[in-house]
Amino acid sequence: EKKPTQPKEMVIDKQMKEDLLETNKEWFIQEQSDIDNYVIRHKWEMIKTGTGIRYAIYQKADTLNNSLAIPGQVAVVNFEVRLLENDSLCYESHDNSQWFLIEMDNVENGLHEAIQYLRVGDKAKIILPSYLAHGLTGDSDKIPPMASVLYDIELVEITTKDEMRKR
Question: Could you give the CA distance from residue 74 to residue 50 in angstroms, rounded to a whole number?
């Protein structure tokens, strides 16, 4: 009678693990330093979140009665996306507002977090480190692997998924 076999675990030797951790740590520190230098060079005062996102609201909404965006709502935005390394333009909405479902749609993880710091009418600069943008793979079009990106974004509207379907 044959006994079922267990799948073999991938064996990674201790030295390889240590080398990978050290390389990633060095890369992470370098990326943070590059972002800090970018912010200093542009003389921006930005808030840094616990996850590493940096943002600055440079035009506040006309009214403070607007609530912050929350998960499950639809964020309607105008935006420009640039690479931090050379300021090259990757994408822009051309005032043709785009929308995404906060914490549910397939946009950069960092954008889901960052949009929740804004109120309708706010315009902000948002820097997403690579691990909160397109990560190790990039987007296979205009954003290369391991690239930090800068969003210049306006939160145009907060609505519901049902309201968006009616349009």
Answer: 24
Q: Which residue has the tokens 């710091």?
A: 117
Q: Categorize the per-residue pLDDT at 11 as very low, low, confident or very high, splitting at 50, 70 and 90.
A: low
> Tell me, what's the pLDDT at 76?
93
- Do 92 and 79 touch, CB atoms closer than 8 A? yes
Q: Quick check: helix, strand or coil at residue 27?
A: helix
Backbone angles phi, psi at 33, to 5 degrees: -65, -45
Element (H, E) at 29: helix 14-41
**pTM for the structure as a whole:** 0.84
DSSP letters of 84-148? Answer: TTT--EEEE-TT--EEEETTTSSS-HHHHHHGGG-BTT-EEEEEE-GGGTTTTTTTSSSS-TT--
Rg of the chain's alpha carbons, rounded to an integer?
20
